[in-house]
């Protein structure tokens, strides 16, 4: 029973963005840089109790990919591993919009060997050799997560906004570095390249420690996986979504909820500029 609960907790961890949950995030120093010479941004990566607060542990940079407006993959500069956060710089040598993403896929398994419960976490490629072939009561959950942000040097572009076709992705119709308070924005969510219809997602602004309330705003996509909405105030936000959507307590008729066979999560940091 304890092992099963642990697997459920691990599988749902990426979707837990409530007021009391530790939240993984990446935060650029700016999302729109105007500079005639060299454009740079510094990106912090951490897991924290308060959104964008540096108060817990650093977020590992495994799976980090930086894609430039021309489709080229860039290397992070000046990587620093800290006690409470990791950070790196991005040199934006070309004008346009860049995507900075941490994409990871893992497998969680629980099973019995000679009557003793075991659990395992790792990569799909290692599962066959690390989990015994004769394991009993094997339960497997596959997870994929995307944590990302977008930054622009001088002029926005849309090359990096094209989907990869894997996992849960935000495909902004409105460039995410051109968001302004009070103006309409249109977003599209895709799951493995197909419209994520009726997908619930949340927008949470930073600064919770100064407000004392989360101020989470919730939305749902339409049948095409799209939504057009207004953001009421300027600031840094994180957009979060997960599939399948977490079920409310009691929705199983008193039965214990089983871990899903697959859990996909998304978290994207965007900046909303003043009107």
From TrEMBL:
<dbReference type="InterPro" id="IPR019613">
    <property type="entry name" value="DUF4198"/>
</dbReference>
<feature type="region of interest" description="Disordered">
    <location>
        <begin position="245"/>
        <end position="275"/>
    </location>
</feature>
<protein>
    <submittedName>
        <fullName>DUF4198 domain-containing protein</fullName>
    </submittedName>
</protein>
<feature type="signal peptide">
    <location>
        <begin position="1"/>
        <end position="21"/>
    </location>
</feature>
<dbReference type="Pfam" id="PF10670">
    <property type="entry name" value="DUF4198"/>
</dbReference>
<feature type="compositionally biased region" description="Low complexity">
    <location>
        <begin position="245"/>
        <end position="261"/>
    </location>
</feature>
<keyword id="KW-0732">Signal</keyword>
